[in-house]
# Entry
Amino acid sequence: MTTPIIPVMEQLEDIVYSRPAALAECSTHYCPGCTHGVAHRLVAEVIDELGIAERTIGVAPVGCAVFAYNYFKVDFAEAAHGRAPAMATGIKRVHPDNVVFTYQGDGDLASIGMAEITHTAARGENITVIFINNAIYGMTGGQMAPTTLPGQRTSSSPLGRDVEVMGMPLKMAEMLAGLPGAAYVARRSLHSAKEINRAKKAIRTAFEAQLAGMGFSMVELLSSCPTNWGLSAFDSLKWIEEHMIPYYPLGDYKVAEGIEALSKN
# Structure
């Protein structure tokens, strides 16, 4: 009996995604559903597109971001908790032709590192800051952070954040945008594909501002923390949209003259 010949159909496929060259191929230490990985990918894509990997230096402090040097194929330095902007200032002043960025969480940047980030922006240091705001201390056990929302329950505020006792959450983008040294300050979110695309554009603009020597730039990214929020990965994204964005509105908070022209080039 003759076996029938079955024609092989040629399949034409388009590659819609590939790993950025600036992003290392390794296992992640982040919890399932955490959007730190999305932020890493966006930063790496921008580094590739701008062709700056060989002269980029990242600075990561203590916190969930502490292992950032494992994920990027660029030079990296590790700073003490909250001190990444101070270390980045020194690196940039010694190596002005390098592209220097910090990658910081909210417990790091808005609490122990408040002095460093404020004075770095006030001086107009020509660095870029990627600020991950998930409204909680992630690595140390889910304690209340400076960005924890009113009424939000954490391991150190089990009844919810009482603003009369603990004060209101800090809005870092709005605060730093008011300083003359800030050239570009924006807030974006990582809860949907549309907002992720907008986040990437903001990150690129922030790096372009540094390349143009325009001063301090920061992109705040609203991010999820399913483990410490006690939610599923899907529900965490909904929580960002329904709870975080109303308190932390998305948008550009400081756009210095000439910034808009950079994004059109």
Q: What stands out?
A: DSSP finds ten helices and seven strands in the chain. The longest strand covers residues 182-189. The first helix runs from residue 36 to 50. The radius of gyration is 20 Å.
